[in-house]
Predict the structure.
Amino acid sequence: MNEHRSTSSPSSDATRRRRRARRTRRGRGGKPPMLWAGLVAGVVLLLAGALVLEDRAETSGHSVDATGATGATGSSSASERPASRKAVGTEEEADETEEDGSGAGKETGTDQEREKGPDPGAIPSSGPGTFATASGGGDRVGGSGRTLTYVVQVEDGIGISPRDVATEVERILADERGWTADGKTGFRRVSGGTSDFRVRLATAGTVDDICGQYGLDTGGEVNCNVGQDVMVNLKRWLLATQYYADDVTSYRALIINHEVGHFLGHGHEGCPGAGRPAPVMMQQIKGLHGCRTNVWPYDSEGRPVTGPAVG
């Protein structure tokens, strides 16, 4: 009987070998080869799908950020977006618009400041008493008679360009309603050598000092002509007076024409009648007395605008 039990058939041996192989694989924690292959393929597909989704999300995020759309999603964070706006110069513009709530930014504020004019408290009341002369020169303007040469000077340290003042003075003296309308008087601006008179823009303190040397009291408020100097008070040049507060440019013409008129020998005049234009030689800063504002010695027809002499 023992001999019979030790004998086995080929089919039985093959079966036992297969069983032992399966037990060996299971003991090692393995899976059947086909099952492993299926699991690996599934993992690969899952990873590939995740990578595709991530790539699409990143691409979508960069595209939105590039167009500047609000509420963008993707890799750009809120803390990164301000830096991006600053790089193209839009962050400051957005801040300016938000500050005043008007949507106009700082430019509107600047326009409003221009309309209001300079701050009276910011105008210097005194200066060094030294002057810079406008360079260059101008063409002769006026009639065929005498030619008066002049220089334009601005007190140092008041922040106004001598060239800008010279341009304005030249325009005033060349106007056809100015003193050249008499057909005898001409003007030409020079920048050096001798000249017949000087137009000098200065602080109130300096005007008071120079005019005071001739016994005139300008009181820190008004202009004067003394000797060869046409002294223009900086305060009046920038602020005008109550009658010309909305037209400072016209008042500058009144200053130049009035003080140059004194240099030419004209005295003060009064209002010729209610509703009529005020003579340029009238002290309009003291009141119009029924006259209308006027800044030219002649009208557009070449007729002189005059009034009764005032002693």
Q: What stands out?
A: The longest strand covers residues 147-155. Residues 125 and 251 are 20 Å apart (CA to CA). The domain at 131-286 is CATH 3.40.390 (Collagenase (Catalytic Domain)). The mean pLDDT is 76.
